[in-house]
Specification:
This protein is α+β, with helices and mostly antiparallel strands and 258 residues long. 28% of the residues lie in helices and 22% in strands. A hairpin with a 4-residue loop joins β9 (87-91) and β10. The longest helix is centred in the C-terminal third of the chain and has 14 residues, at 223-236.
Length: 258
Amino acid sequence: LWKFESFDEYTGDEWKSSLLAGKSLYSFYPMQEYIDNYFPDPELLKIQFPISPAVGNNLMILPSLFPIPFIIEDSIDAPNLDQASTILYKDDFNAVSVNLQFSDSQPVNLSYQLFGLDLPTDVEINNSALSALYTPLEIRNQYLQLPPSIDSYKLINTFFTNHFNILDGIISNSDNAFEVANIIRNYLTSPPFSFPTSIPDYNPAPQGRDIVDWFCEQEKGIWSDFASAFCAFTRAFGVSSRYVEGFSGFLADDIYDP
């Protein structure tokens, strides 16, 4: 699983990071420590993609792996790059950005090395999960937001509420936070919901229309629509969640790479 950015605030037509999402300096991971502590599993990966830098400083998001980013020290490389001035940052959502200084504006290929850790299985998560009621208040205050409030959101967005009511008949008060989230995930990825396999088959939300409510009305959308709906439904059922922009493979495409 690859991630770019993560957001905690939903506006109805997009996701944003609130002022609570602070950014701080972050350390690269030394190659020798990877060899000593991890090699050969997890595998060390090399990523390369084209960029068109400006002369001087360029701040950009670096794709990274879950659960926390491990970017190898001295591995960021590109023509005309001043490697000594490279600065890495990480925000409170574990998204990584980097400041790169270029001496030329010619398009180049940027490369770097990284690795990630094995994610826990559904069984492992479920075995340690508790009811959402035990979520700390600080987390609930940040990750249970819907505009302008959960109750008002359900009143305004009737197609969302129709599916909420169906889910309400499936979800039990005894379900822990993972079980609630898993029911919602399975519901939104099963018929009548479907996902187009080609761009002409996709009908995005009209301007000014809530993208989650539109997805619920159409019962069809791309994977970013699913992710938005998943976060909205989990929040409506009291399970704290945030939106992560990312992909499950290397295609980095909303149609072909969920």
